[in-house]
Amino acid sequence: MSDILTPSPAPSHARNVVAWSLQVLLAVVFLVAGGAKLAGVPMMVEVYDLIGVGQWFRIVTGLVEVCGAGALLIPGYAGLAALWLSCTIRPPCAR
After folding, report:
1. Which secondary-structure segment (H or E) carries 47?
2. Non-local CB neighbours of 62 within 8 Å, separated by 6+ positions
3. DSSP class of residue 1?
4. Is 95 part of any domain?
5. How many domains does the chain have?
């Protein structure tokens, strides 16, 4: 009975390592993707021409991804950054 009333233990060290590893991996992925958009990699330019939204949207998306990648690495902003970055993934996945 006393087990029910005891507080749950803090997250394990292994869980923290896995969480940080995933955050760093996702930050690198979004940094590379956003950097490619900002650098004007020909494939990215072609994709945004095909979509028809204009090159300004490529720049905005690149900035969102690069800023979100940085925010993923700041503990207080990681959850908000994940939500922010999920908005950049949602439109292409909806098709």
Report:
1. helix 42-51
2. 34, 35, 36, 37, 38
3. -
4. yes
5. 1
